[in-house]
Amino acid sequence: MAYIPTVQPSGEGDEKKENGNNKKMDILKPKILNNKSNIKEEVPMNKNTSSQPKWYKKKWFITTVIIVAIIAIGGGVFAWKTGSVIGKISKGSLFTSIVKSLPGVDNTLKGEKDGRINILLLGMRGENIPGGGLLADTIMLVSIKPAENKVSMISVPRDLQVTIPGTQDRQKINAVHFYGENDGKKQGLEYMKQIIGEVTGLPIHYAVSINFEGFKKLIDAVGGIEITLDQPFEEPLQFDEAKVCDPNVFTEKTGKFEYKKDDKGRIVAAYPLCTNPDKECNGDFRLPAGKQTLNGSQALCLARSRVTTNDFERAKRQQLILQLLKDKLTSIGTLADFGKMNGILDSLGDNVRSDMAAWEMKDFFELYQKMSNIQFYQRVLENTSEGLLYNPENAPKEVGYILLPIGDNYDKIREMAKNIFDLPTQSDIKT
Fold first, then answer.
1. Of 36, 66, 89, which residue sits at a domain end?
2. Buried b (16+ CB within 10 A) or exposed e, 113-137
């Protein structure tokens, strides 16, 4: 609409004076319209002005802008959340990761030039959780050959006796992470990488740990994992097992005792036994035979069960669960589902730790996504000739059940780890 300037009417005397002094000014004065209600009718429209609403006022445009804004805000929050989670999980600065993403900057992953990337996976209760929260409950070395579409998994039993790095102290390998974290050292992952490197003879490029809570949430976030059991599974002992009473976890008295004897068989001490009043896995964990979908709690209970079977069978189940989880995590249905991806991020944050930098996580994920028709190679170290370990009969009672490498050195284990991609399948592992 054309602009029409207006003036306020002046007094009568002033008007006469103005007319008398300078009549020429009349032609410069703007014309005052007497009928304000007819302003629009009396003012001609500009030739280029259209009577139709402009395109940015149309309903379709406004709706589109709102939708795009919602998507942008959602994407922004998701990106922020992703960055926040990766910041908690990874090591290194954001600046380093930005620099590594620049063109021309070397961003090769460790082991990538050699064609084999070795990653140590650890599972545990979690920090500040009673009952051995920092002891490694699961120890698995995963090796990836991207160019050959091959992945290997080597499970190490927690009862393997090793020397704690930097000491002469002999302990079970599951305690190594605890000693690394103890007294604020925060070297648990590094200690575990060092000892697994010593056992396998391989360079351990990266390490990742996840606690029980993170594992449960991760399984739930992807909608569970589908598994087929040939026969029913039951673990009636482990999750209602009596142990020496303590003030935090095992507090429900059973009336039974654990006795300590001297060399002559005489009882020198008696320790009361208690159970955990907060029964894990309902105390008696069961699954029926057949095809079924496990939620996070069920998958965790299956992955932890070992008393009724043994630690080696448990390791084989863990490898199977890891493969099923991998299939779910990398499926199109999961990657394209915002809700699932959001849930995955929620499950990680405070529950996962790694010594990978953010840029390494990104590059590793992209590298893995390019792999197709992946072939898996599996090994479980156990007390058989094929498993390369044995249980010494003369071990001191106070040491408890331990495992040692056959030949009392790691030569056979190192040979197996180096050539795992060329070895036949371990006879007692279901593929």
1. 89
2. eeebbbbbbbbbbbeeeeeebbbbb
- State the alpha helices, DSSP H only, in 182-307: 188-200, 212-221, 296-304
**What pLDDT band is residue 154 in, cutting at 50, 70 and 90?**
very high
The confidence score (pLDDT) of residue 133 equals 80
Residue 380 falls within a domain, yes or no? yes
- Give the pair of three-digit tokens for residue 216: 């449960």
171 plus 270 within the same structural domain: no
How long a stretch of residues is the chain? 431
Question: Is 360 a member of any domain?
Answer: yes
212-245 CB burial, b ≥16 within 10 A, e <16 = bbbbbbbbbbbbbbebeeeeebebeebbbebeeb
Mean pLDDT calculated for residue range 127-131 = 70
Question: For residue 357, how many C-alpha atoms fall within 13 Å in the half-sphere facing its CB?
Answer: 17
Same domain, 213 and 99: yes
Do residues 40 and 65 touch, judged by C-beta distance below 8 A?
no
Q: Are residues 342 and 314 in the same domain?
A: yes
3 lies in some domain: no
Query: What is the CATH classification number for the domain harbouring 339?
Result: 3.40.630.190
Instruction: Give the residue numbers spanning the domain of 226.
Output: 94-236+284-422
For the chain, the C-alpha Rg in angstroms (whole number) is 35
What is d(CA 216, CA 347) in angstroms, rounded to the nearest whole number? 8
Give the DSSP letter of residue 396.
Answer: -
Q: How many helices (H) and strands (E) does the chain have?
A: 13, 17
Is residue 7 one of the residues assigned to a domain?
Answer: no
- pLDDT band per the 50, 70, 90 thresholds, residue 8: very low
Residues 212 and 359 in one domain: yes
**Cα–Cα distance between 79 and 358 in angstroms, integer?**
13
Q: Do residue 310 and residue 166 come from a single domain?
A: yes
Q: pLDDT (tens digit, 9 = 90+) per residue, 348-376?
A: 777 888 898 888 888 888 888 888 899 99
Residue 277 DSSP symbol: S
